[in-house]
Structures are given as C-alpha cells and as structure tokens.
Amino acid sequence: xxxxxxxxxxxLELEAAMKEVVAHRRGKIALESRVIDPMTAGRIKEIRKKxxxxxxxxxxxxxxxxxTIEGWEQxxxxxxxxxxxxxxIEKDPEAVERALAG
Length: 102
Hints:
single chain; 102 residues; mainly alpha; 0% strand
C-alpha cells in the first residue's frame, strides 16, 4: 500500500484557486474584475497632442524618448510601465512633471 503524499500549502491554495475559477466559469460566483481600456495608437497620439506639439516636445517634458512615442503611435507594443505613464499623463500631466522635478 502506497502512502499518500502530504499536500503542501501551495498545493492547497492552487486547488482552491482552480475550484474558484471553475465556479466562476459556470456562473456560480462572481469574481472581482477590472476593465482596462486599450491603449491604442490613436489614443496615444491624442494624449501626446493634448500635452505636446511633437514627440520631441513630449520627450523634453516627460523624458520618454521621441522614438518610443513615435513607435507607440505607429502601433508598437506599449509595456505596462509605459501604459501606466501614459494613463497618468492623460489624467494629470502636471503630476508627472512634479514627480520628475523633485
């Protein structure tokens, strides 16, 4: 007779998480979620134009290389940090400037 292996804390947590996922998929429970608006090339261009006339001016103001902004405006992938920065700039560009100044 084989002895059953003791379950680890991690194993138990994973098992509980999978049960939760299955229950959610079956509509038995609701899980907290957050909808994140896509950061499209057009939206990035709108944000940039709202705060700077050109990618070079955006670079001077916020420290993001002009080539990076141009790439994002041409649909290159935006990483998480870039997405967060653009969102803050969109909502409160002066907050970014204050953070960079001090």
